[in-house]
Amino acid sequence: MTAGIDLGHPQAQAIRSDEDVVRVRQLVRAVAVAVKLSLVDQTKVVTAASELARNTLVYGGGGTVEVTTVDNGRRRGVQIVFVDSGPGIADLDLAFTDGYTTGGGLGLGLSGARRLVDEFQIETSAETGTRITVTKWSR
Ligand SMILES: Nc1ncnc2c1ncn2[C@@H]1O[C@H](COP(=O)(O)OP(=O)(O)OP(=O)(O)O)[C@@H](O)[C@H]1O
Ligand SMILES: [Mg+2]
Fold this sequence. Notes:
By secondary structure, this protein is of the alpha+beta class. It has helices at about 20-35, 40-60, 90-95, 110-115, and strands at about 10-15, 65-70, 75-85, 120-125, 130-135. α1 (about 20-35) runs antiparallel to α2 (about 40-60) and α2 (about 40-60) runs antiparallel to α4. Adenosine-5'-triphosphate binds near residues 107 and 111.
């Protein structure tokens, strides 16, 4: 499934079901191993990806993810882009507040994910939905 993964190209995965969220975890783990993240950093980026994939599914109405290796000349890393065309996030400050949820969750997914990665970028609007890009670098 993730054996023989071609790191030269972004790996795309639909997010439409719980099984897809599991696949996202496996894909991110495989790429994190390939770019030689430590075991702790592998777990951090997999956990972040899992939370963001679940949000894409639950609030975004499903979407897609792309997992890519990145290289800044000094380090390699894993970059993950989540895209949905759902309702967007009206108040980002609120959404990143620990404990804030509109879905009966713990309200810790977004804030936790941001803490677990090195770079976190979010673009969201009611018209286009939500696009989140995260990067974790080897150290
Ligand atoms: N892709 C998205 N599209 C629209 N709204 C979103 C999206 N992701 C998050 N949100 C909004 O941001 C809120 C906070 O998200 P967060 O992941 O922090 O908490 P949660 O999913 O409600 O609970 P938890 O992740 O702890 O189970 C969500 O309740 C939802 O209202
Ligand atoms: Mg969540």
